[in-house]
Amino acid sequence: MYLIKEIKEIAPKIKKMVLEAPLLAKKHKAGQFVMVINTEKGERIPLTIADKDPEKGEITLIFQEVGKSTIEMGLRKPGEYIYDVVGPLGRPTHIINYGNVVCIGGGVGTAPLYPITKKMKETGNYIITILGARNKDLFILEKEMESVSDEFYQTTDDGTKGRHGLVTDELQALIDSGKKIDLVLAIGPAIMMKFVSLLTKKYNIPTMVSLNSIMVDGTGMCGACRVSVGGVTKFVCVDGPEFDGHQVNFDELLKRQAMYKDMEEIALKKFLEELKKKEPCGGCHA
């Protein structure tokens, strides 16, 4: 059982949760993730630790409310307990002094990107950050990311902040400017990482992506998180979550991510109906 020290909304449908977890705070390395089980009968939710405080024995998780399990977890309150947190899982990010590193975060993908960027900066890399979101209200960890960046750029789909366009537009501008880029690290929606990788492949820029695939046990036993990398089957939970973006079969990954969409929608509809029944006066807020 893990005590919830804090939970709050930091952007529409994006929650920050601070848990008391001293061993995880001590053992976790940048790039690794945990498997969160909200309630005894809840499903396992893979989440990357966005931040930690080993002295306080706390870890910070950031998650987007997209389905039944994450919406249910978002309803928890400080002082309550998360049923279980398993980890740290996965391979840590290989962090050395690469030189100029472009760190690209899309939406809630900024959460796992932050600890890696911070460690890259501590290791002496020159950090160029590009954050992208649909609009200005959906950015998270802006101050934190800017504090560990030598250059900081933002893009929005609707032009309400930063460059009006996509992260690939800002990356293309950097490449066109002649900026030397030794490594690109991209974390966000699979479609974003696909197009970042397609762009960097044209210029032979090494690119790492962190995949968020369907996952069940997180230990390599179930095979649900399998992806094709360079024509070879890999398991995100034990072989990743980070892979060479130029080798990932993103089209296959996108199809697998949508496999259970219908069942997820049914589960969400049922959960919201049950939630409404529990509200005062059947949900009329009287």
Layout of helices and strands:
Elements: E1 2-11, E2 14-20, H1 22-27, E3 33-37, E4 44-53, E5 58-64, H2 68-74, E6 81-82, E7 84-89, E8 100-106, H3 110-122, E9 126-133, H4 142-147, E10 151-156, E11 163-164, H5 167-176, E12 183-187, H6 190-202, E13 207-210, E14 226-229, E15 232-235, H7 236-239, E16 242-244, H8 250-257, H9 261-278
Parallel strand pairs: 8-9, 8-12, 9-10, 10-11, 12-13
Antiparallel strand pairs: 1-2, 1-6, 2-5, 3-4, 3-7, 4-5, 13-16, 14-15
What's this entry about, in short?
This protein is an alpha/beta fold and 286 residues long. It has helices spanning 22-27, 68-74, 110-122, 142-147, 167-176, 190-202, 236-239, 250-257, 261-278; strands spanning 2-11, 14-20, 33-37, 44-53, 58-64, 81-82, 84-89, 100-106, 126-133, 151-156, 163-164, 183-187, 207-210, 226-229, 232-235, 242-244.
Major β-sheet profile: 7 strands, antiparallel
Number of strands: 16
Estimate nothing, just give the exact number of structural domains: 2
Rg from Cα: 19 Å
CATH top level assignment of the largest domain: Alpha Beta
Keywords: 2Fe-2S, FAD, Flavoprotein, Iron, Iron-sulfur, Metal-binding, Oxidoreductase
GO molecular function, one term: flavin adenine dinucleotide binding
InterPro entries: Cyt_c3_hydrogenase_gsu, Dihydroorotate_DH_Fe-S-bd, FAD-bd_FR_type, FNR_nucleotide-bd, OxRdtase_FAD/NAD-bd, PyrK_electron_transfer, Riboflavin_synthase-like_b-brl
Pfam families: DHODB_Fe-S_bind (PF10418), NAD_binding_1 (PF00175)
